[in-house]
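Notes from hallway chat w/ T.B., transcribed later so I don't forget. T.B. wanted the structure written out for a chain they're using in a teaching module, and asked if we could keep both sequence and structure tokens in one place. Agreed to drop them here.
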Amino acid sequence: LFELATAFNEMLSRLESADPELAQLVEWRFFGGLSIDEIAGLLAVSDRTVKRRWRTARAFLFQDLAAQGIST
């Protein structure tokens, strides 16, 4: 479990380096448990924009997992 948490933290750091806003979105969704609508309200954007950015963040994380040799 510790290895998984460490790997996730490293992935989130790489995402933050690439796109800090996407990393914040992942933190709000994953750790904060915020909904798409709640995040849209915080960012003053549409829910469609948040959904699109969430898909982008997830794609980045899945690609990073694959690059690390971790299957989903």
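Follow-up for T.B.: The helical segments are 2-18, 20-31, 36-43, 47-67. Might be a good example for the class.
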